[in-house]
Amino acid sequence: MGRRRRRKPKWVPERAIVGELDRRGRAVVAAGEDGRPREAHVDGALPGESIEYLRCDREGPVDAARTLEVLEPAPDRVAARCPHYGVCGGCSLMHMDPDAQVAFKQATLLADFASHGVEPERVLPALRGPTWRYRRRARLGAKLVPGKGKVVVGFREKDRRFIADLSTCEILAGPAQGPLADDPGRLISALSELIGSLSIAARTPQIEVSAGDRELALVLRVLDPPSAEDLDRLRAFAAQYELRIFLQPKGLDTVAPLETGRELLHYGLPDFEVELGFRPTDFVQINAPLNRAMIARVVELLELEADHRVLDLFCGLGNFSLALARRAAQVVGVEGDAALVERAQANAAANAMTNLSFEQRDLYKEPGAFEWPGGPFDRVLLDPPRSGAAGIVEHFEAIAAPRVVYVACSPETLARDAATLCSRHGYRLAAAGVMDMFPHTAHVESIALFER
C-alpha cells in the first residue's frame, strides 16, 4: 500500500509578541507559549512587535508564517518603498530601518564567530553603500500569462513557484548615462512589452540584466530561434534604450551578442586607476559602489608595501588582483574557472600591468598537494564562494603569510575557517565586520583580518 500523503493543517490566525530574527530575516515566535506546539518563523515582522500572523507551511521542526497585521510596531519599522514588497522575493527586510538591518547582520556575524569559539579583537565599522538602485546584476523570470494578457517579468515571488508581476524595481541599477539612468526599474515594464511582442514570447523564460559603468546588457534565454521580425524588434529595443542584447539558446557557452563585436561591459576602480572588462554572464560583485569601498578596505587591512608579494585566491576576473598590483611588487591570482582566468589576464594586459600572473587551479581538489607559485608570500587574500575555504585553511602552513584578509559571502563558513586558522595555525582574528552588499535582504557579506 502506498504511503498516504500528509494533509496540510488547517491553520487559523494567531497573535503573539515576536522574538529575534532568524537567518532569513523572519521573526521567531517560540513554541510552548499559549499552547503553541511548534515554533513559527514569521515573514514581515520585527523583534518585539505584537502581530497577528498565519502559519502557511511546514519547514522541518518549525512552521513558516506570514504577518497579517502589525498590532504594535517596533521602532525600527519603516514603510516599504516598493509597491511589490511582500510578494516579490527579491527583498526581505525593506520594512526594517537600514541602520537596524546592518546591526542585525553584524550581530549574525559575531554570533557565528562565538559559536566556533572565536571573537574578533576589533569590530570593524560596517561598510555601506547606496540603499536603492544598487543591484547591477539580476536574473529575472519571464512568463506568458494568458489570463493577465501579458508577459509577467520579475524576480521569483516569496512563493518560489511563481514569478512576481513587477512594474518597476527599486533596487535595480543601470549605467550612469542613457535613457534608463534616472529610473532603471522601468526597464521591467518595457521588457514585459518587448517579450510579449515576440513570436517566441512563451519560449523566453529568463532575462539576465547586467550593468557596467557605461553599458547595460540583457541576456535573453531563448528556447526557440527568434524570427526575423523578432530580431528587428530586439534591435529596435536595444537602440531605444541604448543597451546590448545577447541571446542564449542553450548553455552559457552559447551566449552571443545580437550585434557582433560588443561582448564586454566595463567597470572602473578610480582609486587604483584600473578598468575591468567582463561578459554579462561573468561573476562580478553585485553592488558597484560597495565593491569599490570593499577593495579599498582590503588594501588598507593588508598594509601593503612596495616590495610585497601577494597571493589572491579565488581571484575571479581580477577584481582585487589589479588593485593589489598597484600597491605591491607582485600579485599571483589563482582561480578555478578557466574563462575568468582568461578575463583576468586580458584585464591585466588592457591596463598595461606586468606584475601580475594568473593560474587556473581547482582550489577544492587536494589543496594540500598544491605548490604555490612564486612563494613565499607576504600577504594573502581569500575570497571564496559560500562554501568557504576549508581545504585551503586546513593546509595553510604551505602559505604561512603573516597577514591574511578573508572576504566572505557566508558568515557561517567564515567562522568555521577562522576557528581553523586560529586553533591550528597560530593566527589571531584581529578584526572583522560586515559589508552591506545586499541592502533590504538578510544576506551577510563580511571581511576578516588574521595576523600572526
TrEMBL record:
The active site is at C409. The keyword S-adenosyl-L-methionine applies. The keyword Iron applies. One of its GO terms (biological process) is rRNA base methylation. Gene3D superfamilies: 2.40.50.1070, Nucleic acid-binding proteins (2.40.50.140), Vaccinia Virus protein VP39 (3.40.50.150). Its EC number is 2.1.1.190. S-adenosyl-L-methionine binds at Q285, F314, E335, D383. It is an enzyme of class 2 (transferase). PROSITE patterns: SAM_MT_RNA_M5U, TRMA_1, TRMA_2. Keywords: 4Fe-4S, Iron, Iron-sulfur, Metal-binding, Methyltransferase, rRNA processing, S-adenosyl-L-methionine, Transferase. SUPFAM superfamilies: S-adenosyl-L-methionine-dependent methyltransferases (SSF53335). GO terms for molecular function: 4 iron, 4 sulfur cluster binding; metal ion binding; RNA binding; rRNA (uridine-C5-)-methyltransferase activity. It holds the Pfam family tRNA_U5-meth_tr. PANTHER family: 23S RRNA (URACIL(1939)-C(5))-METHYLTRANSFERASE RLMD, RNA M5U METHYLTRANSFERASE. Belongs to the class I-like SAM-binding methyltransferase superfamily. RNA M5U methyltransferase family. NCBIfam families: PRK13168.1 (NF009639), rumA (TIGR00479). This is 23S rRNA (Uracil(1939)-C(5))-methyltransferase RlmD. It comes from Enhygromyxa salina. The lineage of its organism: Bacteria, Pseudomonadati, Myxococcota, Polyangia, Nannocystales. The gene is rlmD.
